[in-house]
Amino acid sequence: MGSNKKVLVITDFDGTLSLTDVGYEVLLKFSSQDWDDIDRAYCAGEIGSKEAYGRICAILGGTRELMLQFVAENTVIDPHFKEFYAFCREHDIDVKVVSDGLDFYIDFVLKKHGLADIPFYSNVMTFQAGKPRSIEFPHANETCNKCGTCKSNILESCQAGYGKIVYVGDGVSDLCPARKADLVFAKGILWTRLSEKAQRGVRKYRSFRDVKDFLSKNGFQKGR
Fold first, then answer.
1. Whole-angstrom Cα distance, residue 124 to residue 135?
2. Given strand 164-169, what is the order of strands in its sheet?
3. Which end of the chain is less crowded, N or C, counting CB atoms within 10 A of the terminal residue's CB?
4. pTM score > 0.85 for this model?
5. Which of 202, 181, 217, 211 is closest to 84 using CA atoms?
6. Among candidate residues 82, 86, 209, 96, the one with its CA nearest the CA of residue 162
């Protein structure tokens, strides 16, 4: 690789590390029927996730306990992610999670699967007496102000400290950071959009085993 700096893998959470789109399922389960209009506007690109979250919080029911019970019963992570993460630790490759989802369920899922040492960046849901109170955006880009979590800004903030940055994702919110990564593993709408643009350095993947195998075969270790 021609660099003595480490490799960093940045991965999306919903639909990527977790095969379940946890945020979508939680909001669908615990929101009132007005959710349909908000979701439709978001999918059509009429509003960003930051505005969508602001609207959703006002119609969100349930409690933190009930939401986490639902998450525990309905979340499936990529069956090869733990194997991939063990490979990264063995070869001194850092891993970070970036998500336009919510901290409380990401933290829960990572801890449940023994992955609590992986740092993550996401939107933050606050609770009062166990019930949703507000959604905060500590990683928003105030210039763009579209996504709750600006994954692109987070990736850029890591560039000086790493020799290569690998990005893994599947959705619309992964488009911006994928354009700035050295290597991208994509599926879903992310693969569709990037393949349409013929972006270089993009590989289609099915699971984190594909990511691990590629990194292993192509010398993605520190100093190589």
1. 6
2. 131-136, 120-128, 94-102, 7-12, 164-169, 183-186, 202-204
3. C
4. yes
5. 211
6. 96
DSSP 38-98: HHHHHHTTSS-HHHHHHHHHTTB-S-HHHHHHHHHHH--B-TTHHHHHHHHHHTT-EEEEE
Low-confidence ranges of the chain (pLDDT < 50): 1-2, 223
Structure tokens at 127: 């609770």
The alpha carbons of the chain give a radius of gyration, in whole angstroms, of 17
Residue 44, SS3? coil
3-state secondary structure of 208: helix
Q: Give the model's pLDDT for residue 220.
A: 81
Question: Which helix (H) or strand (E) covers residue 136, if one does?
Answer: strand 131-136
The single-letter code of the amino acid at 184 is V
First-last CA distance in the chain? 5
**Per-domain residue ranges of the chain:** 7-217
| Rounded-to-integer distance, Cα 70 and Cα 160, Å | 40
Q: Are 123 and 54 in contact (CB under 8 A)?
A: no
Given this model, what pLDDT does residue 2 score? Answer: 44
Q: What is the pLDDT of residue 221?
A: 65
Cβ-count burial 186-210 (b if 16+ within 10 Å, e if not): bbbbbbebbeeeeeeebbebebbbb
> How many Cα atoms occupy the beta-carbon half-sphere of 193 within 13 Å?
16
Q: Any idea which residue has 């693969």 for tokens?
A: 191
CA–chain centroid gap for 99, Å, is: 3
Whether 165 and 181 have beta carbons less than 8 Å apart is answered as yes
pLDDT score for 222: 57
Cα atoms found within 13 Å of the Cα of residue 220, Cβ hemisphere only = 23
